[in-house]
Amino acid sequence: MSNPALMLEQQLNALREAYAQQLPDKMKQLEQTWRLLILGQWTTEGFKALYRQVHGLAGSGATFGYARVTDTARAVELYIKPLLDQEPMPCDADLLKINALLGELRKVCAQPDQSAPQGERVGKLHQFIPARRN
Amino acid sequence: MSNRPLKRILMVEDEPDIRTIAKFALEAVGGFTVELCASGSEAIEKAVAFAPDLLLLDVMIAGMDGPTTFKTLRAMPQTAHTPAIFMTAKVQRHEVEQYKQLGAIDVIAKPFDPMALSAMIHQIWEQADV
Questions:
Q1: What ipTM goes with this model?
Q2: At a CB cut-off of 8 Å and minimum separation 6, what does B42 contact?
């Protein structure tokens, strides 16, 4: 007999794995945006694009079970936010700090860890299933 | 406390990853009928035909943001009274109050637990005066 909770767990695990596999590519895109900014021409629009990419990772990481992705991306996001409207561009110290924070994010995205043990998730599922409305 | 049934949710979220896992969280886990929109303008286009019971709006959407989308939907007769929940990483009390003053019934923090999202929405719905 099929177990609905386990089936949902399997679906969720598949979504998590797919997300984890995409993380290195997401990080590459983010680093490309950053390289264009610091090696090419600095633009406020480009900096805002970087902010949005980091914000996306911060919002999605823990939702997929990768809390370290969220925490590390959030640190970059919080550092960048007050600098977004600064003209003409952030100072060298800020650029170095952002570079270092992105380096941390790269490491985490290369080896994301899942923050919730599977047993705990299944337990939550069993608790929730009876409350489901159709 | 609400006695109205909650079945149809229109969600506005510009992050494809979040739309994917929200679809799982709301449809597979929660059993809702869901319309996912990638932008505020898409939501405005689809809202009337979909006739949602609830709007679930990310705050920071590219282009037309969540609050602006909500105000636009509020100005349309068909969705003028549709309850809304905002989703945002910013969950400081004054910000929550700001969204409630706009007319939202509550705010859900991001990141969210996909296994708990539907239960959280049911809880908000049951406690809301809608």
A1: 0.89
A2: B12
